[in-house]
Amino acid sequence: MPSMLDAVVVGAGPNGLTAAVELARRGFSVAVFEAKDTIGGGARTQELTLPGFRHDPCSAVHPLGIGSPAFRAMPLDRYGLEWLHAPLPMAHPFDDGTAAVLSRSVAETAASFGPRDAGAYRRLVAPFAGRWDTLARDFMSLPLTALPRDPVTLARFGLAGLPPSTWLMRRFRDDRARALFAGLVAHVIAPLDGLATGAIGLVFALAAHANGWPLPRGGSQAVSDALAGLLRDHGGAIHTEYEVKRLDDLPPARAYVFDTSPTALARIAGLGGYYDGYRYGASVFKIDYALDGPVPWTAEEPRRAGTVQIGPGSRDIATALRGVSRGTAPEAPFLITAQPSVADPGRAPAGKHVFWAYGHVPNGWQGDLTDAIERQIERFAPGFRDLVLARATAGPPQLAAHNANYIGGDIACGAATGLQLLLRPRLTPFPYSTPHPAVFLCSSATPPGPGVHGMSGHNAAKAVWRHLRRTAR
Ligand SMILES: Cc1cc2nc3c(=O)[nH]c(=O)nc-3n(C[C@H](O)[C@H](O)[C@H](O)COP(=O)(O)OP(=O)(O)OC[C@H]3O[C@@H](n4cnc5c(N)ncnc54)[C@H](O)[C@@H]3O)c2cc1C
User: Known SUPFAM superfamilies for this protein (predicted)?
Assistant: First the structure.
């Protein structure tokens, strides 16, 4: 290691690793320090239940990963990353035994909403057809990290997405489309009537039509391992089991880049109350299952889907989300479930399956949601419980222990509500900079927010290399 590094990155999550790669491939010397004994943060894979069952404790499905401008500019396939697609990206079953779907095909998706809403859906997504690459690059680079390449499409996206999702859902006459769309918004645990929540639903829908909602072969760890392989080939080093508590714990460097919560960064770098206004949000109660067979969904479509949303109506989803934001765990939780072995049978022994489900719970909640979650699954897949070989549960305390960024179990590293959905971690056009000129933040507490896409790391790296070039002169 040189006596003075160009950059030190704290945290080997997808954003920390992306920032490190972006700097290393531009010739800067970089070292990453990770608290845990494995890299990946929210993108890891572990045998949590039984031998041979490869679970993703956090992220599993990657609509924003395959569509990430940062990842697309890196040769991650050469480092083992292969995206696998289930026949359907997502399905949303109803009590009558039918399901709406989010398909790669706009026509199939629209048809699943029924004749009264098919046209409204086609009209909603038509202006963005074939424009994912520029649109994603433009909205994921806000604020101010790059000039928009297609300002007209970005403006149309803003007009449709900036109002609350409840406005956007008024385009639909039936609850099939509304429920599916409400479920999409709930992926970032945002209340449906919040500012810009329409954009969340729209992004997930457009991502499905552009690139699908794939899973990495072998699990999410493959994303982290590919980034790490690329980093090492550019001369970067990674140190695990190295929890950083003070800046003095780190070797001398010209820049320090934190893939941590703003709270931890303020504590470590001595920034006082700079991030005191930053709010953490709701958490989840998650169950990883080893199953003796595929989930016995009543409807046919969920059997072919990588992701299945469970929350029959838009009102049920809104009620569950509202309750959670007010501190009450839901009796009938809205669930996001993922069935990786539908796309990747190698994740479990022959004929067996891995499956995960989570429901939202208040920040710091200490109860057990297992029964409520399984009642919801049984409603749409009777006989599910009989297939369970083993389960691993994690509520807010376990999630926070797994990753210091999940404060109170907040898996988004900061509430996705109000202005903080768009402008995080503070109201500033320079979210990656801090009052310390050599200290930067790159975690999902910065735009564009949660998800395995590396774009917070990519945007932060731009601020870092400007600093490095300026201070080299
Ligand atoms: C249950 C769950 C399900 C999810 N599902 C999906 C999904 O399907 N698709 C998707 O795209 N996203 C999903 N996410 C979100 C996604 O995992 C995160 O948004 C993403 O991992 C954030 O990346 P990051 O690099 O900002 O932070 P993280 O991935 O949280 O990584 C931060 C890293 O920093 C380390 N660290 C923190 N403090 C220190 C310190 N002081 N010293 C050293 N190291 C430190 C941590 O150990 C960790 O490794 C899910 C998350 C959870 C928890």
Answer: FAD/NAD(P)-binding domain
